[in-house]
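Suppose a colleague, Dr. K., hands you the sequence of a protein chain of 293 amino acids and asks what its three-dimensional shape might be. Before reaching for any lab equipment, you can write down a predicted structure in token form. Begin with the sequence itself:
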Amino acid sequence: MIEHYPVLNKEVLQFFLPIKKGTIVDATVGGGGHSYLILKNLPDIKIVGIDKDEYALQKAHQKLSEFKNRFILVKDSFKNIDKILSDLGIKKVEGFLFDLGVSMFQLKTERGFSFQREEPLDMRMDTSQQLTAYDVVNFYPKPVLEKIIKEYGEEKFYKKIAYNIVEQRKKKKIQTTKELADIIYWSYPPSLRRGRIHPATRTFQAIRIEVNNELQEIKEGISKGIELLNKGGIIQVISFHSLEDRIVKNTFKEAKKLKKLEILTKKPITPGREEIENNPPSRSAKLRVGKRL
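The predicted structure, expressed as tokens, is then:
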């Protein structure tokens, strides 16, 4: 079995290597892949790992167990990093890593993140929250659905998709990912149904962003992260679609104007051919890095 490495792992590690001691916050710890590499290569560094997903934290704990007292895991949203660090008695840190989007193991849980299998419409990263994809799909008014699919999915057939969702749910509530994916598929013009990416991709992304309030949390989390860095500290953000990347780029630019951040990546770093071959979902990853002034 080939070991699955976290996306852009060599590049992320390279930017953190000059940090010899202190704390690095892995704000989206997931299964612990990036944290493992940091702890293994930087022996005097401690990690605070944050995730909304209880399942992710269990996986991370298993992965990092050999490092005993060098990591703390916290179940929360990274938008609350100021409170999380304050509660731990930490004033400033040496580094932040945000790896946005859905992790590969989350796609394998039966929570409806993927339209490849028939699963309940859930899409919650934090399974203790109330709002699910089922609620969005079955109860949001048509104009609100249109807005979400258009803005969060950047989907040009948003009107037709929203219309067909609303018509279908009048007859019977939409229960599963396959039911939703089929509605979206038939909303596309026949000539575009078999393109490079599945017609449902953008709409599923849009609904997931809405369920998890992702874009607002990204802006809030990164802004707080910059404030909580020690001078010379490094912030790294990996995004997977243009909406996320735009927020990261603009937040970094604002911090640069205020003379709080030096941007170390003029253009985002993307995976090389070898990484894309070994891990195809990494192809859309973009890494932006800043250094606290």
